[in-house]
Amino acid sequence: MEQSKLDRINELARLSKTRELTKEEKEEQALLRKEYIQLVHNNLRGQLDNIRIVEPDGRIHKIEPKNGNE
Q: Domain ranges in the chain?
């Protein structure tokens, strides 16, 4: 995510503490937050997908999701 978008998220958060956001600002804030959350989710998923367990006997295996979700 570009720094300008992060700055805008922070700017809207500061504005919301001092005044009511307009409908357009609220919509923009919701879209930016959704994009940010998706980015964090994808980064975390990428990290979790690359975790491997090394057993004491030297075997290496990938962690599988408990509930089958990816």
A: 3-62
Return the percentage of the chain with pLDDT > 90, whole number: 80
Q: Which amino acid does the sequence have at 4? A: S
Place of tokens 């979700």: 69
Beta carbons of 36 and 13 less than 8 angstroms apart = no
pTM over 0.85: no
- How big is the chain by its Cα radius of gyration, in Å? 19
Contact 33, 10 (CB under 8 A): no
54: left (phi over 0), alpha (psi -120 to 50) or beta: beta
